[in-house]
Specification:
This protein is of the alpha/beta class. The chain has helices at residues 4-8, 17-21, 28-38, 42-74, 79-127, 131-136, 139-181, 183-228, 231-239, 243-295, 304-325, 327-345, 406-411, 436-441, 457-462, 470-479, 483-487, 506-520, 536-550, 562-565, 585-591, 594-621, and strands at 367-374, 383-390, 395-400, 421-426, 429-430, 443-446, 524-528, 554-558, 570-575, 578-583. Helix 4 (42-74) packs antiparallel against helix 5 and helix 7 (139-181) packs antiparallel against helix 12 (327-345). It is elongated and about 120 Å long. Residues 1-11 and 617-622 have low confidence and may be disordered.
């Protein structure tokens, strides 16, 4: 669905109920914060304001010159003066247009520079947000803040801000000119303005109600299209043979959208008719009043040219005055936009690198969990007392039921999350005292779900070490049993993997992930069910590679396959937020506790399946 702020935006001149409920609180601090983004560009803003004032002043000249054309050139029957005045009017129009273009260009430049600054700030801020932020926040909301919201700042600067100044300048200069020419006609023209604006707002409100309903239906149709025509959605539709049903739903919604759009267009035509009628009412009243003053000799100084110029100038007042009457709506929406952006900027980031963070050598360093507690939700503790030590250079396996917190335990080492009690130490140093970038550079992680960027195999590998040579890349892929596969591709290492690695199989993606960690050459290795995406043949093919990779490194492995667990120096069993059991495979089986239960229900079944599969493979080959 479209982001909430897009759906909630009401028509110009009206605030929706949602907007009224969420009115931003106007404070001096908020205004100063907004202005801080404008401050670096104040010379350019000054140029814009000067251009607006010049454009407003020069824009008066064609109307005033029209009056002179009538009174002096036409009445005086002077062709020379007529041509001269027409040239003046043309030059004034041209000058106003040129100044307007200059103002628009500077405005656009300022807007894009501010957007550039804000996007850089937002991206940097989000890059350093903790992992918990990305697991809880909707990706669509993040992209909306990053793109739609910040891009909307352009309309605030080049639209709202400039519009306020421009409309004020036009209204002030026009009123001065009107009262200078004839205060009587000026008053008539001003009296007409409410007669134009009030009906316009009333008719407009009805029309925008239709537009709002139409927008809501469009959202519904877009949602249907997004869900059923996406890769996963279309697959689901096909598998459950719901093509006809989804088509019927689309036809229904599409029909409702079409009917609302036709209704809006019909109302739009009547709206324009009413607008045209009231727009003509003002000039007619001025002509009537002006004619009366001339015929009754109530104003001997009044001329036909003055009446003509007054009509032109009054018409110039309608749009800017209507816009200024809606200034509170534009202002409120602008503040709401900035408030949404600042809400993201103000999100706390508890996981930061400490000042002068430590960078100790962690080669063969012990990893110690000292009575660690952790919870995602303050009301529900996941880990209560995790206490164990992985000696430097050793490989420990962590097992436990699904949801017991195995992945959370290992995620505390690179500070994807921070403990809520106790401490995690590497070589005697609390991980919270490490320089954060240095800490993460020492740790290699292979996760169950491999993420690849939509680029080439080479680009995904170089993400671990951008200075790696081709020989180093090929060596890493050879160890991961991937080089032959890559070499067989037409583009070799320049093969594009597709979005999230879609063009590769699960096993190929996982092996690429392992090769990437090999290139990183970390001191501490974390394997979070790293072989879960592989069949037994693929797993056996890279098991030796993993053993080479783990050699001399402190390694923690979360595994569900007995073949992996048996290679561990020690096995840790997680249950109820603590390390319930610890020992070798034989020792834990002898205890007859949680590990024995896991062995009977999970590990042995997998082992029997793999053994049977291997026998079947041998029989087939025979």
């Amino acid at each position: 669905m479209p982001p909430p702020h897009v759906r909630s935006l009401g028509p110009r001149g009206f605030l929706t109920d949602e907007e009224k409920k969420n009115l931003p609180k106007v404070t001096g601090a908020l205004i100063r914060r907004i202005l801080s983004y404008l401050k670096p560009y104040w010379p350019q803003f000054l140029l814009v304001f000067i251009a607006i004032l010049l454009s407003s002043a020069v824009g008066l000249l064609p109307s005033i010159i029209t009056g002179r054309i009538v009174d002096e050139a036409l009445v005086g029957r002077s062709m020379t003066l007529l041509v001269k005045l027409l040239i003046y009017a043309f030059l004034a129009l041209t000058a106003a247009q040129v100044i307007g273009v200059l103002e628009s260009y500077i405005n656009a430049w300022i807007s894009q520079k501010i957007i550039f600054d804000m996007k850089n700030q937002m991206y940097d801020h989000l890059q350093h947000m903790p992992h918990a932020f990305f697991t809880s926040e909707k990706q669509g909301d993040i992209i909306t803040r990053m793109n739609t919201d910040i891009s909307g700042v352009s309309s605030v600067i080049s639209g709202t801000l400039s519009s306020i100044v421009s409309n004020l300048a036009v209204v002030v200069t026009t009123l001065v000119a009107l009262f200078t020419m004839s205060w009587r006609l000026a008053l008539v023209g001003i009296v007409v303005i409410p007669l134009l604006i009030l009906p316009t707002k009333s008719v407009g409100k009805t029309r925008w109600k239709i537009l709002t309903d139409s927008q809501a239906k469009n959202d519904e149709m877009n949602q249907l299209v997004n869900e059923t025509l996406s890769v996963s959605g279309s697959l689901l539709v096909k598998l459950f043979t719901r093509e006809q049903r989804e088509y019927e739903k689309f036809v229904t919604v599409n029909g409702e959208v079409t009917e609302l759009q036709l209704k809006e267009q019909r109302s739009g035509k009547w709206f324009r008719v009413i607008m045209g009628m009231f727009t003509q009412l003002g000039p007619l009243l001025i002509y009537f009043a002006g004619g009366y003053f001339i015929i009754a000799r109530a104003d001997t100084a009044l001329t036909v040219g003055t009446i003509t110029a007054t009509v032109a100038l009054v018409n110039r007042l309608y749009r800017p005055i209507e816009s200024l009457l809606n200034i509170h709506v534009d202002f409120t929406r602008s503040l709401a936009l900035f408030t949404r952006i600042f809400d993201y900027f103000d999100l706390p980031n508890p996981i930061q690198s400490p000042e002068n963070g430590q960078k100790p050598d962690v080669t063969d360093a012990d990893v110690v969990y000292d009575h660690v507690a952790f919870s995602y939700d303050p009301e529900k503790t996941l880990l209560t007392d995790i206490d164990f030590t992985v000696p430097g250079g050793k490989m420990y396996a962590i097992v436990g039921a699904s949801g017991s917190g195995k992945s959370t335990i290992v995620n505390l080492i690179p500070r994807l999350y921070d403990v809520t009690g106790g401490a995690v130490r590497i070589g005697g140093v609390d991980v919270r005292d490490f320089d954060l970038s240095y800490l993460r550079a020492q740790i290699g992680v292979v996760t169950q779900e491999t993420y690849l960027f939509n680029g080439t195999i080479r680009e995904n590998l170089l993400y671990a070490n951008e200075n790696a040579t081709q020989a180093e890349i090929e060596r890493a892929c050879t160890i991961a049993n991937l080089h032959d596969f890559i070499a067989a591709q037409p583009d070799g290492y320049d093969t594009v993997v597709g979005n999230r690695g879609l063009k590769l199989s699960g096993g190929e993606k996982q092996r690429l992930s392992i090769a990437r960690v090999i290139l990183k050459d970390p001191k501490i290795l974390i394997l979070d069910e790293a072989t879960s995406a592989l069949d037994s043949i693929s797993e056996n093919a890279i098991q030796d590679a993993l053993e080479v990779l783990m050699e001399g490194r402190t390694s923690i492995v979360i595994a569900h396959r007995l073949s992996t667990i048996l290679k561990a120096d020690r096995i840790l069993v997680v249950r109820d937020g603590v390390i319930a059991e610890e020992g070798t495979h034989e020792e834990l089986l002898a205890l007859g506790g949680t590990y024995r239960e896991l062995y009977e229900t999970q590990f042995r079944k997998v082992l029997e399946y793999e053994t049977e599969h291997e026998k079947h493979g041998e029989h087939t080959e025979a």
